[in-house]
Amino acid sequence: MDEFVRAVEAAVFASAEPLGAAEIAAYAGEGDVAAALAELAERYQGHGIELVERGGRWHFQTAPDLAHLLRRTREEPRRLSRAATETLAIVAYHEPVSRADIEAIRGVQISKGTLDVLMEAGWVKTAGRREVPGRPLLYATTPEFLTHFGLGSRKDLPGIDDLKAAGLLDPLEDAIFQLDLDSESEERLESQEEAD
């Protein structure tokens, strides 16, 4: 095995956090980081640990089919409340969003604690301020969100058809979602007609 590939392997293995290509290059030195990562990912495929990329950042993880072996020693995380789950979904699908945007989509006010829980988990971060009166904070997901949920990017979030197939949408929610989509399409069409 080439010394540069070994250096890349050591840098990713020793890191407590997933690393981007630039961070890996800072540790491993000059060389083709992408090619080294591809070689390592192929080499570890099918082993007890695998080299995976999530959101442009690389890390080693236990092979999914062996994760059950480690559950005994793993701390059981506390479950998110329904409000926190809904808020996380809104942030993930509509980012960057303000608190007012989240409340408008959910139809109810959210407590400050809901966003605090998501920020404490490392899944949501502040992403600047909107340039409107009051300059409200904007919220977005983090690379840790992608890593935790096994997503390469936000494009990998399930679509409406995926959610229906998994039985996660009931017919009433689906009808409401479809009405929202139809009204948004009508508003866009009207604004285009006005612009013409």
Jot down its keywords.
three-stranded antiparallel beta sheet, 3 domains, Arc Repressor Mutant, subunit A, 6 strands, 9 helices, 196 residues, alpha+beta, globular
Describe this structure in words.
- The chain is of the alpha+beta class.
- The chain has three domains: 3-70, Arc Repressor Mutant, subunit A; 82-157, Orthogonal Bundle (Arc Repressor Mutant, subunit A); 169-196.
- Helix content is 51%, strand content 14%.
- The chain contains nine helices and six strands, in the order αβααββαβααββααα.
- A three-stranded antiparallel sheet has the order 1-3-2.
- It is globular.
- The mean pLDDT is 81.
- This is SMC-Scp complex subunit ScpB.
CATH class (first level) name of the largest domain: Mainly Alpha
CATH topology of the largest domain: Arc Repressor Mutant, subunit A
| H/E element order | HEHHEEHEHHEEHHH
Label the CATH architecture of the largest domain.
Answer: Orthogonal Bundle
**What name goes with the CATH superfamily of the largest domain?**
Winged helix-like DNA-binding domain superfamily/Winged helix DNA-binding domain
Quaternary structure type: single chain
Largest sheet: 3 strands, antiparallel
Spatial order of the strands forming the largest sheet: 1-3-2
Structural class: alpha+beta
Large-scale geometry: globular
| CA radius of gyration | 21 Å
